[in-house]
Design goal:
Layout (H helix, E strand, L loop, with lengths): L2 H15 L2 H20 L4 H10 L8 H10 L6 H5 L4 H14 L4 H8 L10 H12 L8 H10 L1 H18 L6 H9 L4 H4 L2
Helix pairs in contact: 1-2, 2-3, 2-8, 3-7, 3-8, 6-7, 7-8, 8-9, 8-10, 9-10, 10-11
Length: 196
């Protein structure tokens, strides 16, 4: 994708989101994903596009997320029904296909898995997941160290971000998605870290 095409995509994403704050986040995720991808010999262009399009449905209400997923015949599991916000990832992949003509399954997979992760993740899925959690606008203790780690060791960074996410949700008495717990097991988090 040319620089001009990417600028056009960024403008269209901004119009879709209708939020300068969210647009700034997706731009940072796109840049961070491309940086992580280059560090690991992964296609940086795919990472940049997935990062740019990952939050297309993030600002939808819970009712709209459920309605739009149901209208497309997308299956909704019990966790998603109880926590519709996580549907923005899978619905976002559908919007990327419908509104931006993205038919690259690798990019769509990275968009689908950027929020709750999954037991099976491609290297591209991983860098977009890590970029979403570690982009410079995030403000939590250890973010910079994890971002540095993500440039050297993706598996270790995945363990760190998953552990941080589970700890964050647990501190707030929020449920952890089954997909996140499956990913935690896959990346070698101990049982105690999966039930903080």
């Amino acid at each position: 994708m040319s620089g001009l095409a990417f600028v056009r995509m960024a403008r269209a994403v901004r119009a879709q989101l209708g939020s300068d704050h969210r647009t700034a986040h997706v731009l940072r995720v796109a840049r961070t994903a491309a940086r992580f991808a280059r560090a690991h010999g992964i296609d940086a262009e795919r990472a940049r596009v997935a990062g740019m399009l990952h939050d297309l449905a993030r600002l939808y209400s819970a009712d709209r997320l459920l309605r739009e997923c149901e209208r497309r015949g997308m299956p909704i599991d019990a966790f998603e029904r109880a926590n519709p916000i996580v549907l923005h990832a899978r619905l976002g992949a559908e919007l990327a296909r419908e509104q931006f003509g993205i038919d690259d399954e690798a990019v769509l997979s990275a968009i689908r898995k950027h929020t709750v992760a999954a037991e099976v993740m491609s290297p591209l899925d991983e860098v977009v997941y890590l970029a979403d959690g570690l982009e410079p606008g995030r403000d939590f203790t250890g973010r910079a160290a994890l971002a540095s780690l993500a440039l050297r060791d993706r598996d270790a960074a995945m363990r760190g971000v998953l552990a941080s996410s589970i700890a964050y949700l647990t501190r707030r008495s929020l449920d952890v998605a089954p997909q996140t717990l499956a990913a935690a097991g896959r990346y070698g988090l101990g049982k105690e870290q999966r039930s903080v």
